[in-house]
Amino acid sequence: MDERSRALEAAHRGATAFLATLEERPVWPRATLDEMLATVGGPLPQDGVDAATVIEQLAADADPGLVGIPGGRFFGFVIGSTLPAALAADWLVSAWDQNSGSAMLTPATVALERVAGQWMLELLGLPETASVGFVTGCQLANFTCLAAARHAVLARAGWDLADRGMRGSPPVRFVVGADRHGSIDRAARLLGVGRAEITVVDSDAQGRMEPAALERTLEHGEGPLIVCLQSGEVHTGAFDDLAALIPIAHRNAGWVHVDGAFGLWAAASPALAHLTEGAAAADSWATDAHKTLNVPYDCGMAIVRDPADSIAAFRTGGDYLVYTGLDPWDVTPELSRRARGVPAWAALRSLGSSGVAALIDRLHANALTMAEGLAAIDGVQVMNDVVYTQVMFRLETDEATRALGAAVLAEGTAVVTGAEWRGHAVLRCAMSSWVTTRQDIERTLAAVRSLVAA
Ligand SMILES: *Cc1c(COP(=O)(O)O)cnc(C)c1O
After folding, report:
1. How far is the CA of 183 from the centre of ligand 1 (A)?
2. Does any ligand 1 atom lie closer than 6 A to the CB of residue 78?
3. Tell me, what DSSP letter sits at residue 195?
4. How far apart are CA 34 and CA 30, in angstroms?
5. How many angstroms is it from 137 CA to the middle of ligand 1?
6. In sequence order, which residues have a C-beta less than 8 Å from that of residue 276 and are 6 or more positions away?
7. Structure confidence at residue 41 (pLDDT)
8. H or E segment at 381?
């Protein structure tokens, strides 16, 4: 066998061996970063090594520092596992090595991504003519959509950003909710919108923007306007009332952007679609496939209602780039990139629309089961309305809550992560993994129960 085939076989063995340990290994890593640096670090040796040997050593050395993210009991942050078809497709993507920015260069992967984009628009109930740009994640999707938004609202105000730049441009009013995701602020910062230029609208106890507060905010001020709304708050899972909020922003000639990293997927479930009602009226949407859809990192989508708005912001003038209609690189800030949308195509094809709906419903049902089980533990308080996949809970004091969070990680059965909500320490449990079973939830509840009792 040649070196490449032996290396690929070693990778296959290493991957399946790792996946086989997920059921029993502690979910939190056994090694620290410093221990991992000691294992894999040191000066670069002068002589090379056979590829299969490199891969075997890599798999063995990394193992103690790996997190059980693809298993059924990782509930930290909002992170998904990986569906079998998506994982295997991801391997093909690397083997194919297609630079997927251009339709002329890589027709197979561009077609697969285009179809994946169409399927997603349909599932999410968004306009079928929107542009879908595949980016690394929802952070970049927020950035990409907001770059298109800024370009468009300035163009409507008679200012050509590509030509004249930001200096001297009409100020853009940038309006966000109090419980927006931090990636919105970072996207704004990268776009040259400072903290002092952001207007924050009050939200309610679950983190939903108050329509009356948005109305009041927009009464004052004029000029180019961007309003950022949210489907799926990371602590509570709450959804902004898009049907009420989007018309208010549009009456004020605003561009509406929706950050729906994991929440927009509620639209794919007939039982939960009411949560995103009204979403289709927005002007741009950012979402992830690597969270709720359970594909490997990196896979976010920047969706813009009018493709002309993405093209105006992103098409390059490089004359070596052959124009062949709408190219992937026309709608995102990137040129060369892997075919990151192909695993999303494979995930969608393996599930079918009914499978996607069933996945979302199961994640929601898991959240309800977890919340019910947690609430039944003496001293545990569930803090949010569990409308979707997020469960937020705490013990009586901040100190006890933080201690419980640390104890869960050390005990190893599951991972939940700590956060702050309205000035209180909380723990968050996100149901994002297709792998999670009722038994995983019961094992987790049993572990939390005995840690709380101790
Ligand atoms: C996760 C998340 C993001 C950032 O997405 P990445 O894929 O981590 O870049 C943005 N907004 C919300 C609401 C999120 O949950």
Report:
1. 7
2. yes
3. G
4. 12
5. 7
6. 124, 125, 231, 239, 242, 260, 263, 264, 266, 267
7. 94
8. strand 381-382
Atom of ligand 1 nearest to the CA of 234: 15
The single residue listed with the structure tokens 């533990």 is 377
80 lines ligand 1 (CB under 6 A): no
Residue spans of the chain under pLDDT 70:
317-325
Q: Is the C-beta atom of 261 inside 6 A of ligand 1?
A: yes
Going edge to edge, which strands form the sheet with 424-430?
Answer: 381-382, 390-394, 424-430, 417-421
**Atom number of ligand 1 nearest to Cα 262:** 15
Q: Which residue is associated with the tokens 């040191």?
A: 42
R_g (Cα) of the chain, nearest Å: 23
Task: Give 203's strand partners.
Answer: 209
Q: What is the DSSP string of 268-298?
A: GSTTTGGGGTTGGGSSEEEEESSSTT---S-
Closest Cα to atom 14 of ligand 1? 261
CA of 96 to the centre of ligand 1 (A): 28
For the CA of 288, the closest atom of ligand 1 is 7
Tell me how far apart the alpha carbons of residues 10 and 74 are, in angstroms, rounded to a whole number.
Answer: 26
Residue 330: cis peptide before it, omega within 30 degrees of 0: no
Contact yes or no for 13/53 (Cβ under 8 A): no
Note whether 150 and 226 are within 8 A (CB): yes
Please state, as a whole number, how many other Cβ atoms lie within 10 Å of the Cβ of residue 397. Answer: 11
405 close to ligand 1 (CB < 6 Angstrom): no
Looking at residue 1, its pLDDT comes to 75
**Alpha-carbon distances of 86 from 48, 303, 348, 433, rounded to whole Å:** 32, 21, 9, 13
Distance CA 347, CA 86 (A): 5
DSSP state string for 148-177: HHHHHHHHHTT--HHHH-STTPPPPEEEEE
Cβ(259) to ligand 1 under 6 A?
yes
